[in-house]
Amino acid sequence: MKMKSAGARASVLKELVGFLWERKLWWLIPLVVLLVTFGLLLVFAQASGIAPFIYTLF
Question: Which residue among 10, 15, 32, 58 is least crowded, i.e. fewest CB within 10 A of its CB?
Fold first, then answer.
């Protein structure tokens, strides 16, 4: 089930980038990438010992 949900998330991101590209909103793509990167950083940081150091950045 985890693989199915991961595939669905990737599909949503692919669809979002496709939408932005079609509407000629290229300038939003780096912003979306940055937000996704920060989100993944926070998710992975919760499961590790470096969480207190990462949370001080925000």
Answer: 58
